[in-house]
Amino acid sequence: MSASKKSSKTKEFRLERRALSLSIYMGLALAAVGISFGIIGGSQIVLFDGFYTFLGIGLTWMARRVSVLVEAGPTVRFPYGREALVPLIIGIEGVALLATCLYAGFNAVLTIIGGGSAAPDTWSFNYALLALAIPTFIWWRLRRVAQRSELVRAEATQWLAGAGLGLAILLAFIAARLVVGTSWAAAARYIDPALVIAASGLFIIPPSGMVRTTFIELIEGSPDPELQEAARLALDHVAEQFALNDRHMRMTKIGRKFYVEIDFVVDPAWTVAQSDQVRRVLFRMLKTIPHDLWLTVEFSAERALVE
Question: How much is the pTM?
């Protein structure tokens, strides 16, 4: 790796960890406020949001630690690096958040069966304002780094979902205040647990996607269609330029690494110099992909050896 590329990677990891640190500090503050306001105001949805955010803090700390390990690169014990930790930690985050949503939803159902809970008070209303403003601000700060970091992208997705929940809580609390003193006043007792159920259903979507992505990457499944298309375009270009029509390609992605393996069946008179030309063209075309490229190109005169 050239000095300039290494410097660029170091900067990327530094920005990644800075973004994750910001998420930890702001998450800690919001969780503390949410849990406190939820207990004081007796609001389940506020308490749920506070605990959900608090759980995310530990997972974000783990993600930050993974960033340090991945930056260390290949070692004697881990010759291919530790990129697999990235989808693994994202999957752990997804499972933990799914479990939290399912538990909160089940508890909210029991509350509705039991007759509901107290209508939202001023504490809950104030928290709803914070739960909209802070996640929106954090998502806005993370969105640029998220374009290059899957760990930060997962974090930004959670904050965006949190902002959506904050907006829903605020609108529902306003509705609850409007119905108090009217013929619909009895419905106000069910707004809080109903919001927990709705929030649980909403929050299931991002972690479900995180778990799915983890599963695909860890079993070395095919990468996103965009990556596949970029690799196929490069392969088709090389095949046409060098008349290499008999070829086979495999690809997968784990964390930042994009693995591409290409096998060509060539004439016995094919030379090493020609092989190097093909490799140079492929590297030139694939280096623009925003991932660490691990390209393996093989040439054989026997088709049975590449199947």
Answer: 0.71
